[in-house]
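Weekly modeling sync, notes
Attendees: AB, CL, MP (scribe)

Item 1: holo prediction request
CL wants a bound-state model with pyridoxal-5'-phosphate before deciding which constructs to order. AB pointed out that an apo prediction alone won't tell us much about the pocket. Agreed to run with the ligand included and paste results into these notes for async review.

Input as submitted:
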Amino acid sequence: MPFDPLNLVDEGERLRTSERARSIKPSPIRKTIDLAESRPDIVGLHTGEPDFATPGHIVEAGSLALQNGYTHYTHGAGILKLREAISRKLLEDNGIEANPETEITVTVGGYAAMFAIIQATIDPGDEVVIAQPSWPPYSSYVKLADGVPVHVPLEGPEFEPSRADVEPLLTEKTKMIIVNSPNNPTGSVYSRSCLLDLAEMAKEHSMYVVSDEVYEKIVFDGNEHFSIASRSEFKDAAITVNSFSKTYAMTGWRIGYVVANQTTTSEIRKIHDFMVSCAPACAQKAALEALSGPQDCVSDMVEEYGRRREQIVTGLNEIEGFYCTLPKGTFYAFPNVSKLGIPSAKLAEELLDKAAVASIPGDGFGKAGEGYMRFSFASSRQNIQEALTRIKAWRTKHR
Ligand code: PLP
């Protein structure tokens, strides 16, 4: 309690939480997870994580690490061997040249990576451009840094931002644009030309461009994932976020990384160090195995997501009022439900209460998501079938 001998501050005043904390809303996804957990009858297509177990060789490496004493703090930026493996992966897979000593930071997942980036780059009043619908933490992190999120509403089914959409919103306060491709929640994969246009714009306006690439491996139909930082002319402005969570079914291990120029990296490292000290040591050893071990586990999972993608999109399109295009990437179907004439939040409630199916309303990803729903197909084909049957039955009853 602060020293207050004259008792000038009343108890209510002292115990008030910060305006900053109160200014952000809890994640809509967390709310649904909590609700769904209390209902064992629910078929959950709401969570954004692989239903697969982490591949055995990665689990073994993590557990061996624990047995071998990897139970301590590591270097704040991550074990050097892991950063070196990430550097090789970046070059081979993404065409990004990154120095493991000075430009790569291992983080507690993409979440901590994004939080640290924003804290390290955004001053009060700085504006950050975010295309919507978008992953909710981006806007919250900007607000927590006293920055201003500037939302660019996108239209479906493409949901691809163009320079013409973004440029009119830029001011002298715009400091950054965040791009996320493959995109959560829309499933879109931005074309190379779209990303290059945005990067060019960012460069001309001296802005950072943060590229969240955590779904990079989950792409279908030969769609290409492109990394802005692979182009040397954008390397200085680009900050790349990646993670082991989605690619290797490692959400619970909490491990990801950031790639940025040396100056930005040293600020990001300071923030991440003060937040969490380092990513879990055993998870870092598991991540090293994920990168250096066999990769067929990744293609096997992506193939299965591909089968489920067909199943859920076909099934949703058979239900009156749901119109769904095939997502180019990620494991989310994002059907347009505006013909139903029910606000997405209400529809999510209805589906939960009456059909026992958990989904995320499109407006949870910003106003531009209204009229859409997110269904995750990182769930078994039986679960998807059951959910479709239930939604269909609900729809038949509620014409
Ligand atoms: N970025 C996007 C777009 C996501 O959807 C997520 C998780 O859902 C993350 C980043 C962070 O994932 P993690 O912290 O598990 O790496």
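Recorded for review: DSSP finds 14 helices and twelve strands in the chain.
Action items: CL to compare against the apo run; MP to circulate these notes.
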